[in-house]
Amino acid sequence: MAYTHVHRAFLQACSNHGTISKQNALEVLIGIYARYGDGDTVPNDDDVIDVVAKINERIHQFDQKIVYTHFEPLDKDFYVFVNLQESPIDLHQNVFTAQELHFFRVLLRELTLSEDHTLSMIMCLNFTNDTVGETVKPLPKTRAEQLLNEWEELGYFLVLDDKLHFGPKSVVEFDKYLTKNYADIITRCCLCNVTIFYGVRCASCPQILHKDCLKKYLRRLTNCPSCKVLWSVSI
């Protein structure tokens, strides 16, 4: 398959949105096909997969990728445009101020350190007083609210029940960053060895696993992979 205007337009859409649901990705591709593709062809989910694969062949050299991921809190699938560099936060240094980037880092840190990886919105706004030395002034709370909305739209965060959660983009893009900076805190699923942002805890031991990994595991076995006690927690 040649790299065409269809691929370029879909890449642009993913880059602009940051995070696109599986359904929206198909709708975007249908619109792109109407403009650049075969007018008699209506793309389907398999066509989205093929287009993404072709794009990834091109952008991998730039440490970029469109990642397909299942986001457990919403039980939805997303395509996420990510930068694969070790510290992707630095890529936004020309977009956000030092204050704003620091606020973003603080949110990542506090979400990682919190027991359930959530923060109340009041706590998030209070973190605007967390400054770096004397050179960075506290971020105005009105700007912090704007940033939270913007970062949620991009998929970095998710607000549910007035609490901030990791969004699908952060889950994919900041895995290496958080693992490097918070190695003693980050938990990895013993079934897939990928960082757990959302998971299910065993009733008999501290083990936490991804819900999807656990579902596949329990199709074959019925005991906890860690303590070997019969798994009893509903998923």
- Using the coordinates shown, work out and report the CATH topology of the largest domain: Arc Repressor Mutant, subunit A
Main CATH class of the largest domain: Mainly Alpha
Runs with pLDDT <50, length 5+?
A: none
The N- and C-terminal alpha carbons lie at a distance of 41 Å
By CATH, the architecture of the largest domain is named Orthogonal Bundle
- The average pLDDT is 88
- Largest β-sheet summary: 3 strands, antiparallel
| Name of the CATH superfamily of the largest domain | Winged helix-like DNA-binding domain superfamily/Winged helix DNA-binding domain
Written description of the protein model:
The protein is of the alpha+beta class and 235 residues long. The chain folds into three domains: 5-83, Aspartate Aminotransferase, domain 1 (Alpha-Beta Complex); 88-182, Winged helix-like DNA-binding domain superfamily/Winged helix DNA-binding domain (Arc Repressor Mutant, subunit A, Orthogonal Bundle); 187-234, 2-Layer Sandwich (Herpes Virus-1), CATH 3.30.40.10. The protein contains nine helices and eight strands. The chain has helices at residues 5-17, 22-36, 45-59, 98-113, 121-126, 141-153, 168-173, 175-181, 211-218; strands spanning 19-21, 64-71, 76-83, 118-120, 157-160, 163-166, 200-201, 208-209. A three-stranded antiparallel sheet has the order 1-3-2. It has a three-stranded antiparallel sheet with strand order 4-6-5. A hairpin with a 2-residue loop joins strand 5 (157-160) and strand 6. Helix 1 packs antiparallel against helix 2 and helix 1 packs across helix 3. The longest helix is centred in the middle third of the chain and has 16 residues, at 98-113. The mean pLDDT is 88.
